[in-house]
Amino acid sequence: MSYEDSIVIRPPSEANSFLLPVTIGCSHNKCTFCHTFKGQRFDIIKIEEIKRLINIVAKEYPHVDRVFLENGDALIVPQPTLIEILTDLKAKFPKLERVSSYCTPKAALRKTVEQFKELKELGLDLVYMGLESGDSETLRAVNKRETAEEMIKAG
User: Fold this and answer.
1) What is the C-alpha to C-alpha distance for residues 22 and 46, in angstroms, rounded to an integer?
2) Rounded to the nearest 10 degrees, how much is the dihedral formed by the CA atoms of 17, 22, 27, 29?
C-alpha cells in the first residue's frame, strides 16, 4: 500500500496545516478500540519521497506556516531521518511557525530527552500522544501495549 491509499487522520487543530506523509498507518495498530488503520501495514516513507513532496508543496505554497507529520506515529521514524525532514522543512518554508505529529508512547520511550530537545530546536513544537487511560488494567484490556507507569514516563 502506498501513502496515496492511506487513511489520513489528523487533530482538528491541524485543519490548516500541510499534511506531510512520513509514515503509513500506526506502528502498534493493535488497540482494540481503534480501527483507523486496520488492514494497513505500517511503513516508513522513504526520505527521497518525503523531500519530493516538500519540494512540490514549497513551489506551490511557499507561505506554509504549519506542518503536521502524518500518519499514526511519525516519531517512530529514526532520529537522523526526522532531523533531515525538519531541516528540509525549515529551509523550504521560511514562514514555518510549527511542526507537529502524533507519537505513540513506544516512540516517546525510545527517544531521549536530548533527542526531543534536538527535534524541538529544529521546529517540532507539538506532539499528540494518545494515553487513553491511567489504569494499567484498562490499558492491558484494550491492548494498548504500555502500562500506566510507562505512559507517565512517555509523557
Assistant:
1) 8
2) 50
